[in-house]
Amino acid sequence: MIYQNAAHPRAAFAFFRPKLGEGRLLLPWQFGPLPHMNKPVTERGRTMANDLFNSFMTGPDENGRFGKFGGRFVSETLMPLILSLEEEYEKAKTDDSFWAEMHDLWTHYVGRPSPLYYAERLTQHLGGAKIYLKRDELNHTGAHKINNVLGQIILARRMGKTRIIAETGAGQHGVATATVCAKFGLKCVVYMGAHDVKRQAPNVFRMRLLGAEVIPVTSGRGTLKDAMNDALRDWVTNVRDTFYCIGTVAGPHPYPAMVRDFQSIIGKEAKEQMQAAEGRLPDTIIAAIGGGSNAMGLFYPFLDDTSVNIIGVEAGGKGVDDRMEHCASLTGGRPGVLHGNRTYLLQDDDGQILEGFSISAGLDYPGIGPEHSWLHEIGRAKYVSITDVEALEAFQLCCEQEGIIPALEPSHALAHVMKIAPELPADHLICMNMCGRGDKDIFTVARALGFDMSDAD
Amino acid sequence: MSRIDAKFAALAADGRKAFVSYVMAGDPDYDTSLAIVKGLPAAGVDIIELGLPFTDPMADGPTIQLAGQRALEAGMTLARTLELATEFRKGDDTTPIVLMGYYNPIYSRGVDRFLEDAKAAGIDGLIVVDLPPEEDAELCLPAQAAGLNFIRLATPTTDDKRLPKVLTNTSGFVYYVSITGITGAAEAVADDVGPEVARIKAQTDLPIIVGFGINTPEKSRAIASVADGAVVGSAIVGQIAAGKSPEEVLRFVKSLADGAHSA
Predict the structure, then answer these.
(1) What is the pLDDT of residue A454?
(2) pLDDT over 90, % of chain B
(3) Contact at 8 Å (CB) between B182 and B61?
(4) Residue A54, exposed/middle/buried by CB under 10 A (0-12, 13-18, 19+)?
(5) Closest CA to A353 of A340, A338, A370
(6) What's the ipTM?
(7) Is B116 a catalytic residue?
């Protein structure tokens, strides 16, 4: 049965026991009310540190590991920088002025909190569970990416870095990075696979308007993973003045934890908004996963609420089978080491990395954040896959039923909602992260549906 | 005494600097690559660095990345790379071979099985770019226990505070990366490298070999003169990429080796 709570034997996470009073971190939802929130932080968040009970929220350990996943698999040139970044982030994390700056920008620049919206017609259409959408597509720049970028750029400024580099797949992270760099007057260089430059042309133009230099990556096969390789090469070359703003919960420690913490504002808000709307926790939370940052952001504040089912949706491309034309690292890959961390990867028998395949450029990555790999192995979250065809169907349904044009990435999550909602009772609350808007995807979708854009009347 | 230690002892006795060459195993194909590797000792190469192909060589420039792609397209794997070493060993039992690459193919094979196979193939040392001291438990410690040298990179960003951590558990030699950057990009500058080598020497008795950004006999000589030896990779691989025959490639290697040996 899908909707029973995932099993999580104590033995599996006993090593994550929080140590009493030792470096216990104050994360955003543990501070107390945010400026734009009128609900107090739940008691649970505060009592956690005092209970020697098992928690899913204490990772990573001091070596950057979530269980066996994560770590710091980088060349020596980068190691000192990674350590100094970690040090700087540890300081910032408990610095009220850091979070005050974040919240000010989240509120006035990004437009947070994003609404939690009851999708009434979609709920009626599917005829089962009550469906809520967390509207992170309404953020400035059109996706959740900016939540994290703001945090990293503020850190970069604190570290005295003057040049920001980023990799991007769909272009959303690149646009968010270019945006925040423009706001702060920082030099911005974005690496983007040559293939993605073509299929996400509107975002390439946006980045250039915002003053960023977009470098099409032709090394390897010119996709997101190659863009990440080239960004790492740039970083290793310009290590002294450059900050690498990673767009997802992957890479060497502390990136997976840091990006998660910045994105956790999504889940923190959703929890309080659901409380306000329904007086209780959701029963199921669900999000699409490429690297997994929007999903980690939604999931993390709910990890210890074990009544909540957590579902991550990977891109199944043309189907998760031996042809490997998909990006489902967890459902179709195995553990390996790439881009600074150990995690599930698409790879061949020799440990060579395979190219993913998805209609959605934002999910087209052969790896996944290490914390997801850990949640998968201990069973706290469940991971499924959705094909291109199913995602396209969900994309259209969302347009028709709710007047929301979703990005192809959350269309994958929505397609899974379409599968499960009809089987669930009317009092089952689903919260899905609508992590991006679909303006950037209309050309891809038009092509896939055989619609000729040059003949639009 | 390991082959690497024996080689440095012999070089020291002769008062000579070491010349280390890098080629990618299986580039452009297995047979050509084997012919080149077999010819390296006669061309003056003291230590062979054998590249293990990987799809995502994050610390390498386009020259090495393309070499890896050529090798993979020609069917190279970790197993075939070890076969190539085995084949070489049949005719040469003294020239050390250092396998250089990235961790995932090794992790994928399984560390214990890999170490056993590498040892049997006559591999003497490992340079695994994405395994810093923080991840020593992964491969470095098991490799040392299995009798393989684990050679670490020290870089311009490795400050004095961090250097002891990098030197701990390093054996065979220390590979000093002359630039912050990727292979085959910027040029190494002997005047910058000299003081850095002295800084590392103050903390270790291991030989210091310098690589990255060395591409001519003159540069090879200049760098070797301020260290215990020089490594050339991309410049040699570039010759292979240009379709030069093994004889032509080895002639170029000899000119580089002569450069280092004249230091």
Answers:
(1) 73
(2) 93
(3) yes
(4) middle
(5) A338
(6) 0.95
(7) no
* Predicted TM-score (pTM) of this structure: 0.91
What is the full DSSP assignment across A207-241?
HHHTTPEEEEE-STTSSHHHHHHHHHHHHHHSTTT
Chains A, B: CB pairs < 8 Å: 121
Of B78, B103, B154, the CB nearest to A337: B103
Q: Rounded to whole angstroms, what are the CA distances from B259 to B158, B218, B221, B249? A: 28, 6, 4, 16
- Select the more confidently predicted residue: B259 or A36: B259
Residue A160: both structure tokens together: 């005295």
Give residue ranges of A with CB < 8 Å to any B CB.
Answer: 63, 71-81, 219-220, 225-226, 229, 232-233, 236-240, 336-340, 342, 345, 347, 349-353
Q: Are strands A130-134 and A116-118 parallel, antiparallel or unpaired?
A: antiparallel
Phi and psi of A260, rounded to 5°?
Answer: -60, -45
Q: Is B169 on the interface with A (CB under 8 A)?
A: no
Supply the DSSP symbol for A353. B
Cβ contact B65–A351 (<8 Å): no
User: Residue A4 pLDDT > 80, yes or no?
Assistant: no
Q: What is the pLDDT of residues B86-141, one digit of tens each?
A: 999 999 999 999 999 999 999 999 999 999 999 999 999 999 999 999 999 999 99
The CATH number fitting domain B3-261, selected from 1.10.40.30, 2.40.50.140, 3.40.50.2000, 3.20.20.70? 3.20.20.70
**Residues of chain A neighbouring B109 (CB-CB closer than 8 A):** 351
Nearest to B162 among A80, A239, A339 (CB): A80
> In angstroms, rounded to a whole number, what is the distance separating the alpha carbons of residues A262 and A197?
27
Asked if B130 and A80 come within 8 Å (Cβ–Cβ), the reply is no
Give tens-digit pLDDT for A28-59.
444 444 444 433 344 444 444 444 558 999 99
In this predicted structure, the answer to whether residue A342 has a pLDDT above a threshold of 90 is yes
R_g over Cα of chain A: 20
Distance from CA of B232 to the nearest CA of A (A): 19
- Check pLDDT > 80 for residue A185: yes
CB contact under 8 A, B61 and A233: yes
Q: Which two tokens stand for residue A251?
A: 């890479």
Decide if B124 is catalytic: no
Q: Which residues of B touch A353 (CB under 8 A)?
A: 55-56, 104
